[in-house]
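Q: What residues go here?
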């Protein structure tokens, strides 16, 4: 069913990095959400009023808020698909993150409102009139929300969409809230205790926590995440196919929204390489990365004097000390210069994020290098990140 809808309503559905295709996915997700949630909200409101169940009525308003979320989804994808302009040279892709942020706020508001209503219901309980037909309707609503959860999760994973994943999480919350309303109404057959309000309060806490999680994940996207180890690993793998590129380091990822990822790195090459030839190889690697990963990358050439046998020896010595001081650290971009009066060793030290004392690690490794290579001036640059080059 899901694949049929995608093929029917999303032209060129396999081109998931194309803004127009992503907009079609967003329009499909939002439209399906609006149709389902309008239907559910009307039916639940009728059932809730007839039965007197606050949990069912709250769930009906929950579905109304889902209609708003679906409208936000459509708006977000329409805005994100706009091309780059003078004021936004990297496009509008991060609008998707803003849309996800708004959905998180809606989820939190719903959770808090439901909690307040449920507490009032516990304090001043009102008898529920259970009805077999109403229970059947609620059960059908649960099945529909299960399908919406799977629908949005599948689309969200397919196009790497935080908005759809947030919408899927919201639909999953609805499965739980409607299940709670179902249990509360069914329990009225057996007891006069205010289980309707208790179930509503428990569910509201879960929904609020879910909203907080959506906000936290989306805030990380807006602030800026580092490139994942998987992404950097794939870049390394593609570059490794080009044997005349000796290695890469200083990989920086800039995320301007799904399908709009820019990157840069340093590529080590033999200093004896012909400039025009190695330039063509670098261009080929950049095009392959963009074709395979959808990442527009710029590679800076770092020449390495492969004829100097000391280069590998010195790097291995420094890498051994770096491993001792900080497991996971990486020494790269090492150069030996003799043009000045004092010969110089220059190298970069990459420390993993979160290392407890980077300043002490810098002092220890710099002190070691100065003692081990006392006839050289040592220039050390410390960096932080995930990539360690090849």
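A:
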């Amino acid at each position: 069913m899901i694949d049929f809808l995608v093929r029917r309503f999303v032209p060129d559905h396999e081109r998931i990095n194309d803004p127009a295709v992503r907009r079609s996915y967003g329009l499909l997700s939002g439209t399906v959400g609006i149709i389902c949630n309008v239907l559910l909200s009307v039916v639940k409101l009728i059932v809730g009023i007839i039965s007197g169940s606050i949990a069912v009525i709250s769930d009906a308003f929950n579905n109304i808020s889902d209609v708003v979320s679906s409208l936000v989804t459509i708006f977000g994808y329409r805005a994100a698909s706009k091309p780059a302009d003078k004021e936004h040279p990297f496009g509008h892709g991060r609008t998707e993150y803003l849309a996800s942020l708004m959905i998180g706020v809606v989820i939190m508001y719903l959770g808090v409102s439901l909690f307040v209503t449920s507490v009032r219901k516990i304090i001043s309980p009102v008898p529920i009139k259970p009805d077999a037909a109403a229970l059947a309707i609620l059960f059908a609503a649960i099945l529909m929300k299960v399908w919406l959860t799977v629908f949005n999760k599948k689309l969200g994973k397919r196009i790497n969409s935080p908005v759809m994943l947030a919408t899927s999480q919201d639909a999953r919350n609805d499965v739980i809230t409607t299940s709670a309303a179902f249990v509360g109404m069914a329990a009225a057959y057996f007891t006069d205790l205010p289980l309707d309000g208790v179930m509503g309060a428990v569910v509201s806490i879960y929904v609020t926590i879910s909203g907080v999680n959506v906000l936290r994940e989306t805030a990380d996207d807006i602030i800026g995440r580092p490139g994942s180890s998987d992404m950097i690993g794939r870049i390394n793998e593609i570059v490794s196919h080009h044997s005349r590129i000796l290695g890469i380091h200083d990989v920086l990822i800039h995320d301007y929204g799904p399908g709009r990822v820019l990157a840069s790195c340093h590529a080590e090459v033999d200093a004896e390489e012909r400039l025009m030839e190695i330039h063509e190889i670098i261009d080929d690697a950049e095009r392959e990365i963009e074709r395979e990963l959808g990442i527009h990358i710029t590679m800076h050439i770092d020449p390495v004097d492969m004829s100097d046998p000391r280069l590998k020896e010195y790097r291995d010595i420094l890498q051994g000390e770096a491993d001792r001081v900080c497991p996971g650290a990486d020494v790269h971009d090492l150069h030996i210069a003799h043009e000045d009066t004092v010969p110089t060793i220059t190298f970069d030290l990459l420390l993993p994020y979160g290392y407890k004392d980077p300043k002490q690690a810098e002092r220890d490794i710099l002190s070691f290098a100065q003692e081990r290579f006392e006839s050289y001036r040592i220039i050390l640059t410390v960096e932080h990140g995930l990539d360690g080059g090849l």
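A: Context that may help when evaluating the design: DSSP finds eleven helices and six strands in the chain. The domain at 226-305 is CATH 3.30.70.1350 (Alpha-Beta Plaits).
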